[in-house]
From TrEMBL, chain A:
Assembly with partners or alone: Heteropentamer. Part of the GPI-anchor transamidase complex, consisting of PIGK, PIGT, PIGS, PIGU and GAA1. Interacts with PIGK.
Ranges in a coiled coil: none
Pathway: Glycolipid biosynthesis; glycosylphosphatidylinositol-anchor biosynthesis
Alphabetically ordered keywords of this record: Disulfide bond, Endoplasmic reticulum, Glycoprotein, GPI-anchor biosynthesis, Membrane, Transmembrane, Transmembrane helix
Protein name stated in the entry: GPI-anchor transamidase component GPAA1
One of the record's GO cellular component terms: GPI-anchor transamidase complex
Organism of provenance: Oryzias sinensis (Chinese medaka)
Segments passing through the bilayer: 20-41, 352-385, 405-425, 446-465, 485-518, 525-547, 581-603
Membrane topology value: Multi-pass membrane protein
TrEMBL record, chain B:
GO biological process: one example: attachment of GPI anchor to protein
Protein name: Phosphatidylinositol glycan anchor biosynthesis, class T
Organism annotation: Oryzias sinensis (Chinese medaka)
Any single Gene Ontology cellular-component annotation: GPI-anchor transamidase complex
Pfam families: Gpi16
Amino acid sequence: MGLLSDPNRRQALINLLTRLNAPICFVCYFAGVAWFMGLAFEPFTLRTYMSENAMGSTMVEERFPAGERALATGREFAAHKKKVGGMPVDWLVKTMQARGLEVFTQSFSRTLPFPDENTERYVVKGTNVYGILRAPRAPRTEALVLSAPCTPGDNNNQAVGLLLGLAHYFRNQVYWAKDIIFLVNEHDLIGMQAWLEGYHHTNVTGMDWSPLQGRGGSIQAALSLELSSDVVTSLDIVLEGLNGQLPNLDLANLFYAFCQKIGVLCTIQGKLQRSDWDSASGYNHAVQTMMLMVMKQASGRPWGDHGLFLRYHIEAATVKGVNSFRHYKTDLNAYSPITAGIYRLTRLHQSYFFYLLPSLSHFVSIGYYMPAFGLLAVILLLRALDLWVQLSAQPSRTEDGVSNPGVLSVLTPLVISHLTGAALYMLPVRFQEVAVEHFPVSETEAVVLTAIAVYTAGLALPHNTHRLLSGEGTEMGWRVLKLVALLYLAVLLGCTAVINFSLGFILALTLVPAAAYVTPHVPKALSAFFLVALSPACTLLFSVFFFQELQEMPVSFQDGWLLYLSVIAQGMLDHYLYGSLVFPLVALLVYPCWLLFWNILFWK
Amino acid sequence: MAELKLRARACTRLCVSVPSDTAVLSKTQVNEDFQEELVIRPLHSGDIYASFQFRTVWETDFMKGNKVSHYRLFPKSLGQVISKFSVRELHISFTQGYWRTMQWGQPFIPSPPGAELWVWFQDSVTDVDATWKELTNVLSGIFCASLNFIDSTNTLQPSASFKPLGIGNETDHRFLRYATLPREIVCTENLTPWKKLLPCGSKAGLAVLLKSEKLFHSSFHSQSVHIRPVCQDRQCKSSSWELRQALNVVFDLHTSGQSKREWSLFKMFSRTLTEACPLASSSKIYIDVTDNPQEEQFELSPATPLLSQAVVLGDRRTFSVYDLTQQVTFGTVRSLNLMIRWKSSEGDMLRPLLHAERYVTGYGLQTGEIHTLMYNNHPFRSFPVLLLDSVPWYLRLYIHTLKVISKGKDNNPSYIHYQPSKDRERPHLLEMLLQLPPHSVTEVTVQFERALLKWTEYTPDPNHGFYVGSSVISSLVPSTVAMETNITMEQPLFSSFFPCKEESSYFARVYTEPLLVNLPTPDFSMPYNVICLTCTVVAVGYGSLYNLLTRSFQVEEPNPGLAKRIANVIRRMRGVPPL
């Protein structure tokens, strides 16, 4: 700090930073991207290990004799489901009671803000059925949850069968120390949300649910099953939850350890880990796996029924049984010890909560991935420093000429862009009826198109702003505005990255170059195109295509566009149904911030 | 003749003082009596409830300075405790598991999960807190339990919920101390000292069945010791000390019964009975056959001609009785192995007249809400309950958010006793007298804030959470049959624990489940890193930044020469500005 308190040396440092500002920014940007790509390179990452000593996998009995019976139960469940045309509540209650559980039901209803066209839902009514296996000599203070969704059609019947089979098996064991709750939830995430809100007696999303009659104390961990075939080739674990929250890494470690022990193939993001990390294709594979995780986490949506548990500080994951065209197949007898083993969980807290997984055996902790973001964020600070120096140097040069820009010239664009953001947040859902009346579109299309319309209308803003301003914008004016916008963006991205690294990083990747580059003195048309291409909406569009590419399901532009529209609708629904924060974050903060830069480009 | 009034009542209105001339004691003869009893109740859910009670009554006086040195049936360790600490009543229970009222109905002697201790001291005790502290440490040694963790932060003085169960005329709650340890684990090491208090130990009588490997292979286990002064006869001319040891256990149908749905003494306890305790004046086994008059639910063998009826918990029950003091009970094989074969399948949930549950709501580590639900399932009668809630200080209750709602309307408690907590000194105490309307759910909610503890105050494994003890609900539940109010009449032990005052209602105590609450917890796994990082960041980063921001920089003038300094001194003396 002696460097900074000495005015001469401080001046020298500042001179260096301002003179070399652009090259340093370039270097930082590429270093950030390179660092990020390096995270998937195996020698740079750490091997996963169990931090919780209590969770050694040696205690598990590997034999689960009731696989056949679970399948039979699954078929019976499917038959009853078909007969009732939905959730066979009575049958489930009876079956769970026969297995010696305390059975309760919960009914719920929810009217969506606008129809969900993917799942064809608008007014949702349903019933959750859950049975509690009371642990002997336990005082009802702790519980674990095993859930399986009751999905329409022929999906997931085996999962329910397995759930009931496990209930039967667990009931005859004596070593449980915690109550185990077996939950079959209708309408997947909506039912799960209703159940969790009922269990914790909260109401964050305005859903109607009937209060729960039976409880088992504080839930320590949860596992959600998804299984649609009688045999499985591999097991896939899904970790990404609401708002990019992740369960404790020990849960993934435990799953991996059990799979290794029992000899079942296990995957993450549907990808096996490979041993040839030193080959190009091996590295490529790891990057793909990690990028899939980043994209999923950035979306902020729950990627399985487990995703909603994380809000309540319950470690949760979804385990999917995958049946692909491999030769080696295992039956449910192998699937179950894993779930049975995971059911010795305690509250996991020892391992990491912030991590990325390039494969199940390696992980990147927060200390390793944060520098990548830091390198991008430092660009904003460097540009801000540059502007600050320019601003503080200017008055001395033109002592009498330029009057200082008023607060108004900075405040007006700030207020107006935020009002546009607020409109983007509020209008689409508020005005869907009006839109449906006047245009030949469905409600969902109306909402999405209104959102796009408001977004585009926001681009017309600079001209309006300038009419409101008292005088002409000054040279000082845009510099002050840009300084404010840069610092605003830095704080915004910094906070986002701490909560949801992936979202923060993807936004930084596109917004930082735009923010660093833009001034009123660059070629207008080209820069406008550049800026629009780097705006949040286009980031989302690119992400949609990129995600499809990563999943090895490339789409044509036409399909991609349709997918893009449905992704917007889904994002909004996630917000209204489950309280995802990505839509309000983008609409209320990121988009207005981007508008400020747009404003600077058209500064006159 | 003074009619004896007992005050096992939860309601303050029922507490009437006892004339003091009843406590006349005679010491002419050593009068001791020991009884043992086992009640087996096949439960509605298909489980089996076994309740042991052992009662020693001794007509002696531990007080008044006389040293009692000759002990026969009464355990010396407890006798010394009574006289040394001037205990009037002592109730201690160790429970592993939660009593499932919805499936099992009411237990004969209720107890909360973990350890519970409540003691009434004689009014001669001057420093109750010090005596209590010493007593808990002594009991901790006697029962091999962590009762020494009872301190001022979990000790309460309930004003109305825990009235003396024996005779006595003192109800000033200054002499009452109540504490629970919900985290206490009960196991063999607690059972062994408990068995040693019995006159026959585990050598003979019913106590041979108490083998820990089976007792701790159950759904519920509870053992308790109750010491109180009782009347000797109906006139209550003299009082004697009663020591009751009770052990309740529920065996699980599924895990032990496997496919065959049958029970026997051997299957439950891995022992059969061959004799009564020779010191016992009475030794009996009762099997509840009320729901089974024609053997439609289960089959009992060997059959017994002896049937007895008793009024217990507001209901008239019929029992098959096996008297172990009679040789004929053991038959030709000289061993008794009772068998119960189930015929019907599992029943549905019960609807007990009174039951309660409690849970924490909300998410995040800042605030939360405690919900206590009390169900009155009586179709047309309302009845009063006393709710006792004790919450540790680190959950700071917002008492202004306290709401009591029955059937959608506010239910105003007719009596509230609230003692706010003091940080690190005493817990919150909330007692309320409520009227539960017929066929209703009454919900008591109160919000709280989670405190941030000092780093040495966290328990081992703090991420597991912190326990909040059970709420206690004491009530007078309407009875379907006339209750027996004469407590001195000869009756089975299981029906005579709570003295009964009115014929129309019976006393019941219900405990809710304890709560497990997470507090904001620092990452203890790397305290060194945390401390170092915090100190470094604060010292280096913030300190120098603060320095830079607050210091005003100016170019330093070179040091003036000596001549100039002298000139300046002279100029200052002259009152002229310096050079």
